[in-house]
Model the fold of this input.
Amino acid sequence: MLTPIAVCGIPLDFILFGLTLLGVALFHRHTLAAALTGLAAVVGYKLAFTGFATFGPGLAGLVHHMRHEWVTLANLFLLLMGFALLSRHYEDSRIPDRMPALLPDDWTGGVLLLVLVFVLSAFLDNIAAALVGGTVARHVFRGRVHIGYLAAIVASANAGGAGSVVGDTTTTMMWIDGISPLTVVDAYVAAVVAMLVLAVPASLQQQRYSPIVKKALSGTRIDWTRVVIVAAILLAAMAANVTANLKFPALLDTFPVLGAAVWLAILLTSLLRRPDWSVMPEAGQGTAFLLALVTAASMMPVEKLPAASWQTALGLGFISSVFDNIPLTALALKQGGYDWGLLAYTVGFGGSMIWFGSSAGVAVSNLYPETRSVARWIVYGWPIILAYVVGFFVMLALLGWHPDAPH
Done:
């Protein structure tokens, strides 16, 4: 008979996962190795002692568990890898080289760029918005982007997606479950406040580190074909998301619709311009890291959350910075009783507090490997934590706590 092990009342599953996160934090130059080692330890323990929750013991339980999770993992893999190619298309279009001429050359230029990322994320996937912001930042700051500002780019993308059912996987899950997009849009009350709190200190930090170079590169010619390719890939993702949710919601549980749409667009547009496949190895390492953490998190014995309350919603935001927000959102939807606008903000924006807390953060770390340090992210990205708390309590004060109505 399979017997779970607990240390001081804490299931060993959580201890192993916590040690994995600690390994990622301490050995930021070997994050993939730490994540894979932790995943192997969790799988080994589940095989030997506890089994896989409702999926049963042994290899059969593991197989059934992975069948249940494969769509989520496949979507993350395809989106992260696909948007890495999209980011390079966008960079090669030479539009980022023109951006210095369009943005103010003081700290307000940094604020404006963060606002643009926020707005983009409301319509695009937050991964794509963060990568666009990171790519533009590389050019307007001439390659010297402060880690605090990179954290702000990720936070802006996550904030922008928090109130849009097409801007984040968690809000899309709520939409699929029958929650009105008008309910989710309440999250923008907190998200806008959070943006106002974090944008100025992050931009001042970047201005001191490396200001915007106002003059655009001479002789820059925009490659409009690549611009069309970028637009086509993003439109394919948006169209697939909206169409699947409105017409074929059951398909989203059985097939990675978004990722497949992105890659179909990439392959078709490769006839116009060849993608830069050289970005794949680096993007692959970051993607494998995130998939290892998400897989390990999905095996944690979290069958029930604490009773729904605004305090629980606040706490879930902090947990989202180290624990994948997709299973947390799924549990909250199953449990009910939450204010979905407030929860969309907490689980969406909360992951910004640590670099691997959201897929947008992992995507940006593929562009800037120096961000893979938990300590530096927290020290220099301190405005994000402050912004999260301020945004939450402003929304709570203005809108109150409205528990889940039948949906």
The mean pLDDT is 89. The chain has 19 helices and two strands.
